[in-house]
Design a protein that fits this description.
Layout lengths: L3 E7 L2 E9 L4 E3 L2 E2 H4 L3 H13 L6 E8 L3 H19 L4 H7 L29
Parallel strand pairs: 3-5
Antiparallel strand pairs: 1-2, 2-5, 3-4
Helix pairs in contact: 2-3
């Protein structure tokens, strides 16, 4: 199999991944996956698409992550992995879509408006 690449985004995080046959190693920004994502919940979320189609030990994944926070990066990586798995085997699309791994969460932070302290918060109104 040639190298398959995919892209995942969440908030302001962007994950570019390269998937090839291997032993199940995940390298994130030239560091091991467990070293980069120290929270067990994030590690679990990232591995879920691979576990859903029983491909945890099948592919080596190299990841370039930029922007966002840890949670946004983890969710961007999960989307990228799911998209790459569909490129490899289109038959897996039904299972991954049912689990919700192929849906991009498009929510982003609302911008701050001028004359207000935050996006929606207003300064206290004083009648006199």
């Amino acid at each position: 199999m040639d190298t398959i690449n995919a892209l995942g985004r969440r908030k302001s995080a962007i994950a570019r991944i390269y998937v090839k046959d291997g032993k199940g190693n995940i390298t994130v920004n030239k560091r091991s996956f467990e070293e980069y994502f120290t929270v067990a919940e994030h590690q679990f979320q990232i591995k879920r698409p691979l576990q859903t189609i029983e491909a945890s030990e099948k592919y080596d994944i190299t990841v370039n992550l930029i922007g966002g926070g840890v949670k946004g990066q983890a969710e961007a990586l999960r989307l990228a992995i799911a998209r790459a798995l569909v490129k490899i085997n289109p038959d897996d699309k039904v299972v991954l879509k049912k689990e919700g791994f192929l849906r991009r969460d498009s929510r982003v932070v609302e911008r701050k408006k001028p004359g207000q302290p935050k996006a929606r918060k207003k300064f206290q109104f004083s009648k006199r």
